[in-house]
TrEMBL record, chain A:
Listed name of the protein: Peripla_BP_6 domain-containing protein
Keywords assigned: Amino-acid transport, Signal, Transport
UniProt entry tagged with the keyword Transport: yes
Alphabetized SUPFAM superfamilies for the sequence: Periplasmic binding protein-like I
TrEMBL record, chain B:
Coiled-coil regions listed in the entry: none
Main subcellular localisation: membrane
Short name of any one Pfam family annotated for the protein: BPD_transp_2
The keyword rRNA-binding appears for this protein: no
Family affiliation: Belongs to the binding-protein-dependent transport system permease family. LivHM subfamily.
Name under which the protein is recorded: Branched-chain amino acid ABC transporter permease
Organism: Mesorhizobium escarrei
Automatic annotation (TrEMBL), chain C:
Species whose genome carries this gene: Mesorhizobium escarrei
Cross-referenced PROSITE patterns: ABC_TRANSPORTER_1, ABC_TRANSPORTER_2
Gene behind the chain: livF
Pfam family, one: ABC_tran
Ranges for domain ABC transporter: 2-234
Protein name in the entry: Branched chain amino acid/phenylalanine ABC transporter ATP binding subunit LivF
Keyword Mitochondrion among record annotations: no
InterPro entries for this protein: AAA+_ATPase (IPR003593), ABC_transporter-like_ATP-bd (IPR003439), ABC_transporter-like_CS (IPR017871), BCAA_Transport_ATP-bd_LivF (IPR052156), P-loop_NTPase (IPR027417)
């Protein structure tokens, strides 16, 4: 995209943009009595990945409103209201970096990013400025970024649990077909899926990446089904891509379960195939209007209430990312209230010493073997399966335990894709 | 065997869609000597128009299809009248302007419809044709049939109507065409409208099959340029033949290997043909 | 019936036609002769509207036409057979002829004229369905003339019709021009080959570096010493 010529200096324009955005993001009821602490959502609000960035930012705002309504954050007796400041990084290196600089200028105490390409852009700056940051991509973690945490999403580490569940309910299946888009997300997650299938006695009979620009998925599905797999895994494909893959699987006569990270467009999948076809398919993101949600998302104060509030404020925009920034914020809030400070070094030390609750329950700091640093907050994760057209929680598993049990296999598969810490740059 | 038949039919569908797009591009190049870089975006506009009128306004797929053709034709005419007409003596300028149009259309689509590419267009005929063990969705057959119909109609127009002769005349010799009283402006505008409508029709036909996003035109235009070079610049028959060869090759390689390899292999195919026949399969030496 | 009044045409800063005044009556064949680059083609292209004059007027049948578009010129009844023929290479002979009648609405009249031309040019009729780029030079010249006639013109402009043709073909060309004239159409010819042009024409003019150096009856000009030396090579 071309740059627009500003007659202001860049810094003025930046501060102006951030001030305007944050003014718009301010909660409607602002108690003048409480002090303010700023948290930053540095996410793609335009561009291809806005479909993750916008709900994440909106979720953060809803969360901040809720917290402020119930008295704000308690730091050694003083109450602080949370103000969400956002900046559109557009998943583009330069813009993301601009955002980071703006956040430092604005004295933002906690930054949230989606992760992946946008983290690599701001890594050096963030390290130098001790910006406590959360990412949704565990693969971003590395020994030099000690202020980077992965407190919520541990994609792809829940996938092993999914295969374990599949094996539990389908002891006789033998073969699996896998596909994913050819980018860093696809490669990392497929490596973990492969480990999962290896660990539970499946033979992988078809394993392919497809180009990100693919528009017609019939050939890919033909290729997978040529090997006559008992089960099909479509990894973390974009929602609309998953829909087209599912449609093709149905058309081309596949019968069996489908494993996918999110099954975001399940209602459309059912409409284009059938309830029977989708029955039993497996995913990893529960509905927040599932009656059991508060029980499983017990690290989140009132998940059901949060969902209701989000739906009210942003109707029909809920997707799997809507609760991820709030999840990061919950972890941070616990840390701040325990440590009694916002300052990064003390807060980090306190967090490590007193692992906060993860959204899905008790958790521990993990990751040294795969990332060189224990900055991933890992605990339980739910497995959902499609029952009568919508997903229901069928199992809750311990991700770290699964990893411990199958470490050797995971390492082998990660080495193949050059993902082990000693293989990275 | 079933697998092979399925792949052949999918190749036919890919050929149909590619041929529609490529013929439009070849038409513009012939008549106006311009490579229209925004051609893929006209395909994208066709898909979005189908969604808007067919799904969002609920008027049904075929209304959406008609709307797609109309909208893209008007857009094509507008591009010619407002922009390209002023750049007739400046082919480099015209090229750059089409890139500008590409960016405007992409950004406009992202602005109006959002980046969230979950827009769904339902096919006008659901269900599959079951033949001896394999299933071909009816809509894919519709795409093939529609493309054949449209290209046949186009051929009839070009071969038997005064308008068609005028289009070909302008493409062959602009000065001489002028001397017969043919209005170059009118013909250019009509050619742009026709070319855009072809791209829009392709986008509309493919809308139920592919992922709709503001950037969906990008791979389309790249394929189209490869195919035109393969077929030979200046030959519409060559473009259609090349579309079939390339799409079939690409589909088969996608199925038996994967799509990334298919992209590379497709380019290698183009290079191989050019080494043997530099002007493309049916191209002629360019009169400069 | 066609009159050039103080016509000047510039290409950039170069003068191609310099203050030319000429007048030719209707119903006759007339010519402008001159060597390469004298400005003859430019005059024809200005009459048919491809080029705009910088000053002066062109009057046809009493009306000024110097600012009309090529389409309007054809509508007024002037057809131009360009230098180098310029038939449409990938249109058939039939399509080439029919496109000459692009602006005409009367389908029956167009068909009559088409049949007449096929009758007059049997070699073209034989090759009706062939692409024009498969024809010989002479056949293409016939086709270009036929195409112009299909516009039902009252004045036919011809730019070097004898160029590149064998002496036999040139003679045939002469016959064709005479028969066109016999139908009641005027012909304005420009040529380097002065012999042929002058023998066909009633009135003539000599153009040298954009200026008229001589004008008058063609028959007399043939005997003019200067003309003979410069243009007839005798």
């Amino acid at each position: 995209m071309s740059r627009i010529n500003l007659h202001l200096t860049r810094r003025q324009a930046l501060v102006g943009a951030v001030a305007t955005t944050s003014a718009l993001a301010m909660p409607s009821v602002l108690r003048a009595a409480n002090k303010i602490v700023k948290v930053g959502a540095l996410a793609p609000l335009t561009g291809d990945l806005a479909l993750w960035g916008i709900p994440a930012k909106n979720g953060a705002e809803v969360w901040a409103n809720q917290v402020n309504k119930t008295g704000g954050i308690n730091v050694k007796g003083e109450r602080y209201d949370v103000q969400v400041v956002s900046f559109d990084g557009a998943y583009v290196a330069e813009k993301t970096l601009q955002g980071a600089r703006a956040f430092v200028d604005q004295d933002v105490k906690y930054t949230m990013v989606i992760g992946g390409d946008d983290w690599s852009a701001l890594q050096d700056f963030s390290n130098r400025n001790k910006m406590l940051t959360s990412t949704l991509y565990v693969s971003d973690l590395n020994p030099t970024s000690k202020y980077l945490l992965a407190p919520v999403e541990v994609h792809p580490f829940y996938f092993g649990l999914g295969v374990e569940y599949l094996r539990k309910v389908e002891p006789n299946l033998k073969t699996a077909a896998l596909c994913a888009q050819d980018d860093i997300t696809g490669r990392t997650s497929l490596a973990y899926w492969r480990a999962g299938f290896d660990a539970h006695g499946f033979e992988i009979v078809s394993d392919a990446y497809f180009d990100n620009s693919t528009t017609d998925f019939a050939p890919i599905v033909s290729s997978m089904l040529q090997a006559k797999p008992d089960t099909v895994c479509i990894d973390t494909t974009y929602p609309s891509v998953a829909l087209l893959l599912v449609e093709q699987l149905f058309t081309q006569g596949y019968k069996g379960r489908i494993l996918h990270a999110g099954l975001e467009l399940l209602p459309d999948m059912v409409a284009r195939t059938s309830k029977e076809f989708m029955e039993g398919s497996i995913a990893f993101f529960p509905r927040f209007d599932d009656p059991n949600i508060n029980a499983s998302a017990n690290g989140f104060s009132d998940a059901a209430g949060f969902y209701k509030q989000f739906e009210k404020q942003f109707p029909k925009q809920w997707n799997n990312t809507s609760w991820e920034f709030p999840g990061c914020l919950e972890v941070w809030k616990q840390g701040v209230e325990t440590a009694g400070t916002f300052e990064p070094d003390d807060l980090l030390a306190s967090l490590k010493a007193n692992p906060p609750k993860h959204i899905f329950g008790a958790a521990r700091w993990w990751g040294k073997e795969l990332f060189g640093i224990d900055n991933a907050l890992v605990g339980n994760w739910p497995i959902v399966a499609v029952k009568n057209g919508s997903v229901e929680i069928v199992e809750i598993g311990d991700q770290a335990a699964w990893f411990e049990a199958h470490k050797a296999i995971v390492e082998k598969r990660f080495r193949e894709e050059k993902l082990m810490p000693d293989q990275k740059r | 065997m079933q697998f092979l038949v399925e792949t052949v039919l999918n190749s036919a569908m890919a050929s149909a869609s590619t041929a529609l797009v490529v013929v439009g591009l070849a038409l513009i190049f012939g008549v106006m000597r311009i490579e229209n870089f925004a051609h893929g975006e006209l395909y994208m506009v066709g898909a979005y128009a189908t969604w808007l009128f067919g799904t969002s306004f609920g008027a049904g797929y075929w209304v959406g299809f008609a709307a797609a053709i109309l909208v893209t034709a008007v857009l094509g005419a507008a591009i010619e009248i407002l922009l390209l007409r002023r750049l007739r003596n400046n082919p480099m300028g015209a090229l750059i302007v089409t890139i500008g149009v590409l960016l405007i259309l992409q950004t406009g689509a992202a602005w109006f419809f959002g980046i969230n590419s979950n827009l769904l267009v339902d096919a006008p005929v659901s269900g599959v044709l079951s033949l001896g063990g394999f299933n071909m969705p009816w809509h894919r057959i519709v795409v093939i049939a529609a493309a054949v119909l449209i290209l046949t109609a186009l051929t009839v127009i070009l071969r038997t109507t005064k308008f068609g002769w005028a289009l070909r005349a302008v493409a062959q010799d602009k000065d001489a065409a002028n001397l017969q009283g043919i209005s170059i402006g009118r013909i250019s505008m009509s050619a742009m409208a026709l070319s855009a409508a072809l791209a829009g029709a392709a986008g509309s036909l493919m809308a139920p099959i592919v992922r709709i996003s503001p950037f969906m035109g990008q791979p389309v235009i790249i394929t189209a340029f490869i195919v035109i070079i393969l077929g030979g610049i200046g030959s519409m028959e060559g473009a259609i033949v090349a579309a079939v060869i390339y799409s079939t090759f690409f589909t088969f390689v996608s199925v038996y290997f994967d799509t990334t390899i298919a992209n590379v292999a497709g380019l290698c195919l183009m290079l191989a043909v050019l080494i043997v026949k530099p002007s493309g399969l049916m191209g002629k030496a360019q009169k400069v | 019936m066609i009159e050039l009044r103080n016509l000047s045409v510039h290409y950039g800063r170069a003068i191609a036609v310099n203050d030319v005044s000429l007048s030719f009556p209707s119903g006759t064949v007339n010519c402008i002769i001159g060597s390469n680059g004298a400005g003859k083609s430019t005059i024809l292209r200005t009459i048919s509207g491809l080029v705009r004059p910088s000053s002066g007027q062109i009057v046809f049948e009493g009306e000024p036409i110097q600012n009309l578009t090529p389409k309007q010129i054809v509508e007024r009844g002037i057809a131009h057979v360009p230098e180098g023929r310029h038939v449409f290479p990938e249109l058939t002979v039939e399509e080439n002829l029919k496109i000459g009648a692009y602006l005409r609405a009367d389908a029956a009249a167009v068909k009559r004229d088409f049949d007449a031309i096929c009758g007059a040019f049997p070699r073209l009729a034989e090759r009706r369905k062939q692409f024009a780029n498969t024809l010989s030079g002479g056949e293409q010249q016939m086709l270009a003339i036929g195409r112009a006639i299909m516009a039902a013109p009252r004045l036919v402009l011809m730019d070097e019709p004898s160029m590149g043709l064998s002496p036999v073909m040139v003679a045939t060309m002469g016959d064709i021009i005479r028969s066109i004239n016999a139908e009641g159409r005027s012909v304005l010819l420009v040529e380097q080959n002065a012999n042929v042009a002058l023998s066909l024409s009633e009135d003539a003019a000599v153009l040298e570096q954009g200026r008229i150096s001589l004008a008058g009856k063609a028959a007399l000009m043939k005997d003019d010493e200067h003309v003979r030396v410069a243009y007839i090579g005798v």
